[in-house]
Amino acid sequence: MLTCSSPNAALSRHATPRVVPVVVQQHAEESAMLRHVRSVLVRAPHVGLLHLGRLDERIAAHLDGLAVAGEYGSKLCLAALERPGCGEVFALAVRALESRDEALIEHVLALVPALPDAARGVASALGWVSAADLKGIVRTLLASAEPARRALGFAACRMHQVDPGRVLQDGLAAEQPLVRAAALRAAGELGRVDLLEQARQAIDHEHPEVVFQAAVAACLLGDRQASLGVLADAALQPTPQGDRALALVMTASPGDVPSAIARGFSKRAQDQPDDKGHRRRLIRALGLLGDPRFVPWLIERMAEPEIARLSGEAFCWITGADLARMDLETLQAPPLPEHPSEDPNDDDVSLDEDDSLPWPDAAKVQAWWAKQTLMHAATAAGQRLFEGEAPSAAAAQRVLREGTQRSRARAALLACVLQPGLKLFQIAARTRRQQRALGLPMRVM
User: Fold this and answer.
1) At what angle do helices 71-79 and 7-14 cross, to 10 degrees?
2) What is the pLDDT at residue 95?
């Protein structure tokens, strides 16, 4: 950890006449804080690309302020590591990379093994800066003998969607699980179908993270056998990794397999009624399944406060309805227990994951659904729906352009499942980079 005696006093002595210390201090604090905010918004159910763009412009403005302050800005970022976190490391790493300060880059990389949040902060910075800022740096990372640095090199390649070539194949054979897992993730997201067999073989690895990344990679690259079994097991776990596995297995499984998985969640919810997690995962699975036959059941669940908003989201995933824009929500939210509670004996301090979802008005939703003749026809035909239409590459592109972050994550997976070998669209990339990739106007509203 960086130590510095009286950092503010020491830094003020180095400030040039054109630098206003209090303003630069604000740039350092805000860039770190907004990075934390962004990590939530990129997975949010209510945030679209343009909303994310507003935040990106704010982050960029603060980072520009640090760049204008030059050495003083870098020193403030260093001083912020007295309270190290992902955001603080991110701000320092961006300064190091953009200024191509080799000593500062080395300092940042040295933090990775020592600080739990440092790897995420550095990886975030590698994804934030431009490809030009990484010229020569990623190659050095990939050639490093340190596993953490090699893993960061592969992360940078997949985030910028740049194929590292032969180095990636070497990474799949690495002895270190950290390197192999990072290489597998890169192979899957970069669409390297030539590495499918190596991904399949890695499913038998002894390390769980390697197994999971191998299954995801194999599935994205076209496997519909061994990978789906691993993903189905992972989908049972109430973790971010389990959520990703559930989304992928429900999207990629052929025939009646997704319905069988949903029935498995239903049975667990019935057998363990006290475990609310099983019921929530059932609702999420039904939304991912996209079978309009379950819409009436979801509408009924909208009358149950604890799962009403989640049921509304699943309904939207199937039908493409926007509850807020279509006036299908209620502003009279039912009372719920405070979460997290103020009880000192309550160990659950997690935030309410439904907090940003609209409250559906079950009566209005039912009336709207009754008028959707085309979707009723799809119900009769047993057709699955993705945001109101048949799953297709065109539907995925539409949602990537117009949808919220959670929906866009599903759309990115769908596009790869439909066309193995396609690079996975990076919904967490800088907004302007995403706009270019989607052919959208470069503006923030």
Assistant:
1) 180
2) 96
Q: Is residue 24 part of a domain?
A: yes
For residue 440, being part of any structural domain is answered with: no
Residues 234, 215: contact at Cβ < 8 Å? Answer: yes
DSSP 134-147: GTTHHHHHHT-SSH
- Residue 16: predicted pLDDT: 52
The 3-class SS string of 160-228 reads CCCCCCHHHHHHHCCCCHHHHHHHHHHHHHCCCHHHHHHHHHHCCCCCHHHHHHHHHHHHHCCCCCHHH
In a domain, 301, yes or no: no
Residue corresponding to tokens 């590495």: 195
85 secondary structure, DSSP code: -
**Residue 91 maps to a domain:** yes
Mean pLDDT, range 73-83, rounded to an integer: 89
The number of folded domains in the chain is 1
Domain residues for 73?
A: 1-137
CB-count exposure of residue 373 (10 Å: 0-12, 13-18, 19+)? exposed
Q: Which residue has the higher pLDDT, 166 or 238?
A: 166
- Kindly report, residue by residue over 267-284, the tens digit of the pLDDT: 888 888 878 888 999 999
Do 151 and 117 meet the contact criterion of CB atoms below 8 Å apart? Answer: no
In angstroms, the CA 264 to CA 266 distance is 5
